[in-house]
Give the backbone structure.
Amino acid sequence: MTEIPALEPYLRAYVAETRAALEAPYLLEALGRIVPIFLRAREEDRTIFFLGNGGSASTASHFVVDIAKGTRPSLTPGPLTQRFRCVALNDNVPSVMAWANDADYSRVFSEQLRSLAVPGDVVVAISGSGNSPNVVEAVRVAREMHLTTIGLTGIGGGKLKEMADVALVVPSQSMQHTEDLHLIVLHFLMAFLRDQQPPRA
């Protein structure tokens, strides 16, 4: 097997940088504001809309699976309990492509919100840079519609940092570390909401 001398130091540096971003105090502060929004959305039967581009699109879809399904206390049939109502707007590929083709790519999420959301719903906008035009436009429209907005971003936060009601800004200039932390946030929320705040019977 061919040895790769640079592999170990590169891996150690990558892990150290990820750990440093994970241990920064911003995380507890932001989650302390995000968790009550999620709990209120479940209590009031609101819809939580997730959206993002590229890797953040897969994170948005992953959020829906884990929050809607993974927070259930049991996968066995039983009495109806409160659930999280979640939608990933990037999963509606025909709608995304239609708006991109017929109007403008910056409107692929905002136009769906105009059709689906009602005041009191929640939008979780994910953008590593915080400057993706369609994400920024979605948050602008969400605020106009009186939706609660959560922004997951990094690399300084971009426009999303200033626009979202709650912004979780990963303190890193690396897109990889930013996306790593967004996935950790997702898995933390799923585990916490499942283990500490079980749905009511």
